């Protein structure tokens, strides 16, 4: 294993240092606050937008990612936190909880402020120098204003419906995260009444980024925002009235779906009903323009029943995420990361695919190696006349999926197709319901997992009749979703295997999911919520025993989040016994590393780079047995106890070495995109020391496994 010996440095530039403590009490002496740790992750993402070595449009993309992450943070985490601490409609007055809310609010406001500062002082001015300009009304010349006026009259105004507020026109329903305007009016309306406030909803069908024609753009690519178009002509909506003030606004709502699975008779129908109301959950955040008059923002806060600290006055568009549309227009190579093409591990189809797997397992490391091999595996199975059954889990697969189409084909060809569809995959519920309908229409058996538990395991099984009439099992197990789009920018491992023990146990898990029977004892797979947490604890304690007996002991684990207290306590105990522990945790981490007497042998780092680190790897030295498990589960309470998860061993020695040399070692060596966590919850970015060469794990893997090309600046 590679040890990281670089000294840490303070966070670079304007990256704030975040404190990890949340509520008071002895518990926080050993655990960091989950919400604050999640916000700290977004500061690390924002650091990519700060980094002048990152291409300009990619910096803008990171700004948008921060915006999207904050949206989900409020929609899910803050909404959940508030719901858990509300009794009979009243928010708890517990001092510890109130202090936690204050810390969250301070962190989020600082993060949003820096996000917009960076947009206005660096990203947009630098884009303008590169010939890409977003023009506000005052920036547009006469010809451009005339074009925008015509666009407003032709495309926008017909779709607007201003609502003047009075007893017959109460405050309208405002859709979650939609763009709206509040307008303050003077004078009397057409009926002689002094209606003073109006609401204008921006059409959701219109693009938020509008490209101006080349003939009026000058020597650049010129754009304007839909919000700017409406701002410039909002007075045209109120004939005979004086517009005194106005502001754009956006409300973020609780977006978790909830159904009582014990009570409903049809989960799919219940969720379809809930999807209709998701857009109108409880408000949790209000965003307005920075120059919004206080009387208007106070009015909106009252309408949404929000306190003052949930107001975010931003210097720019209230939905920064939609600025990502700019990336679809601008094609300058110098403003993007160098092109990268995943390498094909095998293009074998049909019989070749299965004969190859009978000879050896195939390990895939996405996005460096193409996901197409998995698609070929399922497609080959769907068309092979000797394949009698295909089983697969679906958590996230997207609206368009070759995999799902292959399953539909297989069902139509008369194969036994069983698909375990997770209907409650957050924000993918609608797509999954649609696939469930199509699969059932094709004749596939569709089930929705286990009541009360999300099916998060990533696995597929092909059963094929071979020589002598024997049924042989072929399996795919992965750390990521069956989503061809995300496999291009999420790092994940997948294993294709014909190993009898593993593949037959995959079938046992499917039987457990469909038949709801108790799972048989599994020798190879670790299955949540039954055996995964105990197996992890057992493996950690085994390393502790080895250390107490005086032999080298080592644990390395890579995951998205580390929050489960039982696992953290086991790691603390192992550290005290002398086990050397390295944890690569991309997002939230509740473990305090480096505390004398508690966790002095534990180091925690986070990698934020071009690709989203998504693979889960558990390594235990185990007296040179080098046990390696891959899985779908983070070390979180929800994954270990409230989900169907599978962790699977890599048994082939060569492939085991690959997982270590590709999935762990480079990330421990990284001194470019690595952030190291200290015992107080602060993250500091690594950088090369002295004459030490810079090393980026993701670049190394692109060069070693894929095809990375370098493009000269224009």
UniProtKB/TrEMBL annotation:
Q: How is it modified after translation?
A: An intermediate of this reaction is the autophosphorylated ppk in which a phosphate is covalently linked to a histidine residue through a N-P bond.
Q: Where is the Polyphosphate kinase C-terminal domain?
A: 352-518, 525-692
Gene3D superfamilies given in the database record: Endonuclease Chain A, Polyphosphate kinase middle domain, Polyphosphate kinase N-terminal domain
Pfam families, alphabetically? PP_kinase, PP_kinase_C, PP_kinase_C_1, PP_kinase_N
The residues listed in the UniProt record as binding Mg(2+), with positions renumbered to this chain, are: 396, 426
Q: What InterPro entries does its record include?
A: PP_kinase, PP_kinase_C_1, PP_kinase_middle, PP_kinase_middle_dom_sf, PPK_C_dom2, PPK_N_dom, PPK_N_dom_sf
Q: Which cofactor does it need?
A: Mg(2+)
**Keywords carried by this UniProt record:** ATP-binding, Kinase, Magnesium, Metal-binding, Nucleotide-binding, Phosphoprotein, Transferase
What are its E.C. numbers? 2.7.4.1
Amino acids binding ATP: 69, 490, 586, 614
- List of catalytic residues: 456 (phosphohistidine intermediate)
List, for all copies, the residue spans of the domain called Polyphosphate kinase N-terminal: 31-134
Q: Which residues form the Polyphosphate kinase middle domain?
A: 144-325
Q: Which reaction does it catalyse?
A: [phosphate](n) + ATP = [phosphate](n+1) + ADP
Q: What does this protein do?
A: Catalyzes the reversible transfer of the terminal phosphate of ATP to form a long-chain polyphosphate (polyP).
Q: PANTHER family this protein is in?
A: POLYPHOSPHATE KINASE
- Give the family per the record: Belongs to the polyphosphate kinase 1 (PPK1) family.
The protein depicted here goes by the name: Polyphosphate kinase
Organism of origin: Undibacterium squillarum
